[in-house]
Amino acid sequence: MLKQIKIGFLTVLTMAFLASCQSDGARDQAVQAAAGSEGTAATDPSATPAAPGQVAPTPNAAEPAAPVGPTTSIQFPETEFNFGKVKAGEKVRHEYKFKNTGKEPLIISNAKGSCGCTVPEWPKEPIPVGGEGSIMVQFDSKGKSGNQTKQVTITANTDPPQSIIYIKGEVMPDPDAKPAEPNVQVNK
């Protein structure tokens, strides 16, 4: 009985993990809206001081900090790319070009996809004033279906420190794929 409960719990946990990566832009928009809301002091543990002898939690420890120092500006001629319709399992790549339009070298400290299926590659070296560069974004449609909108958040020494680019399109079911067999277990 205990073994069945553990297996059931692991199944639910796995399905929740997989579903979190399959949602379209609605989840991403909800997260952005929540991040922009006021009054987080009541729910944010970093807003309250730590008790003596305890270490205070770091806010957004998973988020990289923007480089400190002088800021510059970045300009993307295109911030959204629609790859159209692709068959499930295909990988789509797109190059987003940008220009350093500020008065300081541009340093991109991080670029992160909203999901593990969206992987950006960015230049690690500083981009000189007036210089150009690009960020290559790959979207893996494996396990996805329907309309998809994914974002890549770029953190740099810009004001504001984060810029967002989007990749979207529709993943069509693979006509050669076999339908999943239902896994039903009956306990007697």
Question: Which labels suit this protein?
Answer:
188 residues, alpha+beta, Immunoglobulin-like, 4-stranded antiparallel β-sheet, 4-stranded mixed β-sheet, 2 helices, 17% helix
How are the SSEs ordered, and which strands pair?
Layout lengths: L1 H21 L2 H11 L38 E2 L4 E8 L3 E10 L7 E6 L4 E4 L10 E9 L5 E11 L5 E11 L16
Parallel strand pairs: 2-8
Antiparallel strand pairs: 1-3, 3-6, 4-7, 5-6, 7-8
Structural summary, described in words:
This protein has helices at residues 2-22, 25-35; strands at 74-75, 80-87, 91-100, 108-113, 118-121, 132-140, 146-156, 162-172. The protein has 188 residues and is of the alpha+beta class. The chain has a domain at 70-175: Immunoglobulins (Immunoglobulin-like, Sandwich), CATH 2.60.40. A four-stranded antiparallel β-sheet has the order 1-3-6-5, with no helix packed on it. Strands 2-8-7-4 form a four-stranded mixed β-sheet, with helices on one face.
